[in-house]
Amino acid sequence: VIVTSGAAQDVVGCGGFVRPPATWEGDSTNKLDYSRFSVMLFTTQGLLKASTECAPNGYYFLPIYDRGQFILRISGPEGWSTEPTEFPVTIDDKTMQCHHGRDVDFVISGFRVKTRVLGLETEQCDVEGSEDGPGGVTVTLLHGEKAAYEAVTVEGGCVRF
Fold first, then answer.
1. Angle, CA 123 vertex, CA 126 and CA 134 arms, to 5°
2. 111-122 burial, b for 16+ CB within 10 Å, e for fewer?
3. What is the pTM of this model?
4. How far apart are CA 48 and CA 90, in angstroms?
5. Engineering a disulfide at 109: which of 50, 72, 83, 128 sits with its beta carbon 3.0 to 4.6 angstroms away?
6. CA quadruple 64, 70, 76, 82: dihedral, nearest 10
């Protein structure tokens, strides 16, 4: 977090990271591209003041030119969720810092998987438009070699986790 003074108005910077949860161990977290996440600064009345995309490593930085109460809000790819989803920030002449000079980090808390199981007879099938998939098929999402989640397809082959 950076504070700059000038002849005009002081600028306070808010920054931090989008991070994977501690339970995501291994090399796969190094391959995630966080640039699909954006962090936005809103007034408490809902007016967008500033926004930025995260760097591929998850870092973001937003300059704040005004004083008052604000909300940092994160937006990611469809189906991804984070904790927190938003973070209150107060900038006043006394503190001149965002979050007491510490990073405001957003941790990925989950994601949604939506797919379709297709029938074996179908050689070419449009996943969005096809109703050829079987219902009643158990699909297992693995974490390493352990089953993390199971779901059963509905008629048409659609399954969601």
1. 70
2. eeeeebbbeeee
3. 0.70
4. 16
5. 83
6. 120
Beta-ladder partners of 19: 107
Question: What's the token pair of residue 151?
Answer: 């779901």
Reading the block at residue 96, the tokens are: 């001149």
pLDDT in tens, 54-98: 999 999 999 999 999 999 999 999 989 999 999 999 988 887 788
Buried b (16+ CB within 10 A) or exposed e, 126-157: eeeeeebbeeeeebeeeeeeeeeeebebeeeb
Query: Element (H or E) spanning 160, and its range?
Result: strand 158-160
Give the start-end residues of each E strand in 20-112. Answer: 38-43, 48-53, 59-64, 68-75, 80-83, 86-91, 106-111
Query: Hey, is 50 helix, strand or coil?
Result: strand
Contacts of 131 (CB under 8 A, 6+ apart): 155, 156, 157
**Confidence at residue 121, expressed as pLDDT on a 0 to 100 scale:** 54
* Amino acid at residue number 27: D
